[in-house]
Fold each of these.
Amino acid sequence: MIEALGMFEHMVLCAIVRMEPEAYGTSIAAALEHATGRAVSAGALYTTLERLEKKKMVTSRLGAPTAVRGGRAKRFYHATAAAREALRATQKSLNLLLESVCLEEPSC
Amino acid sequence: MLNRSMELVFALFVGRLRAEALVGDIEEEAAKRGSRWRGYAYLGSLVSISWRFVAGYLLASVLGGYVCSALSSCFWASLNEHTATAFQQSWASTLSVVAGLLALTTLYSAIHFGPRDLLTKTAAAFAVFGAVLVSLWWRSNFIALLTAMAVLLTVQLLRSSTGRKALGVLMLMVGFQFVFWPLGLALVAGVAKQLRMISPSMFLFLALMYMLLVGVFCGCSAWLHRWMLEVRLRTDA
């Protein structure tokens, strides 16, 4: 069974899949900001990533420490097979729904 | 200095390694965005990772005291000669305590574990049944109907492994609270009496002990939830 995901969870998963294998907090936030045009709070992103880990949608591993981070390691995220399946199912549903929708108002 | 202390504070809620990664992300971005952004990012992150714990703790503090008074008044009502005889002899007083504990569990679980958590949904369903049953305790036809619905819900939950676990956690949490709140407060009061302290320090001592008691309740609830629902579900997957 595919676990129910919220809108922000979907967006974070898409960002992770796009950024892999370099998907970590800052790069995911930057990808989301670029796509939506809105700033993403580090706390909101972090709690979502933790929730996705609990749902077994992502796994994480620690990278090497860097100087710009004050000697702290990056935590890289990787989307699991279940996450990819969930994204595929969402994409399929959206495509089916949007197929018959006319968004150009004058021609509808 | 700020990042070190924030790392320690974050580690209280998410563990040392995750706190390190989060602070590292903020520091990396703050190098580009400035110190004002850093301050907001730390504050926002702290609120995001701690609000469930803080709100759950405050709710448990308020409702725990209410549960103690409800428990004692219900038991006194069933013994008191001035209470209506029909109510004294009915199961409604005991069920009202259980419904109250189910409502507390629902609210606490909704805040601490989220509204879509299995425990929250199960507790909410049974809390509604309990509350309606108590409010219509003299209408035998409603009682029969609602009891049948509650039994059907239980059977439905027992059919799946996740449902059985949610039911198990709910029963343990309600049973635990039934004993925990009155016994905990009696213990706090007993210790205070033994120490024979003067009034202001007695008040402070009781308040601190109560806060500690609530902390034990929150810790036990989180442990029970993790042990039965999170870890076991992950093993099943």
Amino acid sequence: MKWIKASLPFLLLLLLAMACQSDNPYKQGEILYLNFCSNCHMDNGAGLGELIPPVAQSDYLANHQSNIACLIKYGMEGEIVVNGKTYNQPMPAVPQLNDVEITNVINYLNHAWGNDLGTVRLQDVQQQLEQCVK
Amino acid sequence: MNHLLKYSLLLACIVMLGACQENAEDTLPYIGNHPNPDAGEYHRVKDFSFINQDSVIVTQEDFAGKAYVVDFFFTSCPTICPKVKQQMLRVYEQFADENQLLFLSHTVDPKYDTPERLKAYAEKLDINTEKWHLVTGTQEELHGISDDYMSIALENADAPGGFDHSGRLILVDADRHIRAFCNGTNPEEVTDFMKDVEKLLNEMDKG
């Protein structure tokens, strides 16, 4: 009987810890994505026709992890090939986002819609942003 | 007994309400400031002449006897346009085999959106010119006709991309009366809008 009493606080703590854990660890990234990216890339990351490339299940996103922060911050222009299709619609820069926010957006992108591209750290993003070719 | 009466009254009310709603939903309303609605003179979109993605002049004659869905956009739009276009595409695909329905997208940025640019845009969306016209013209005419469609198209240097415009989809009947509209950025509203399109097409079949 005593051990039950003793373990009660721990059980409560465990319960609390579980309750605090949200299903989506990329909350801010998701909100920022919906505000700054989804108008073009769509809520489901599918893009639009052959105008706007997908960010869901996108080989381009997977292969350009070292450059994604720069793309978000400074935008991009010119032809790119994503999943075998050619896209050529300029992407506007999103200068409103700070380094932490960009990190959160990338981590959301890397894990949303079945993407599994790993987690980036703030330091990685900051390092990348210092080396952007503008 | 008292209870029974109350319940049956309530039931009758509900049935009546349901019946009313069905009636109201059968026909689409006429929308706008009507010159003389009692005589059947409803707000009517004025004559127009624009140039489409094939550099062909498009006028109200090309839409005569057809219902059509209208929107305003520009190809370099950094805000709501792609979402609205995705929803326009949804409507377009839903009614792909319906030859009584056409689509008309107006650019609000004719300086940049030449017929060539509209052509490239149409190809990237894989849409058929005969069914869906992307048109350009003079800015004055394009922005002017947005009033007729009860939409908004304004130049505004402070707006992202340089233009303020509404994301509305507007349903116009064969007599160029406006019969329904919805917010083209909201997929649920667009689902309801497609039911309105269906209703209008049924009305045309009967008419």
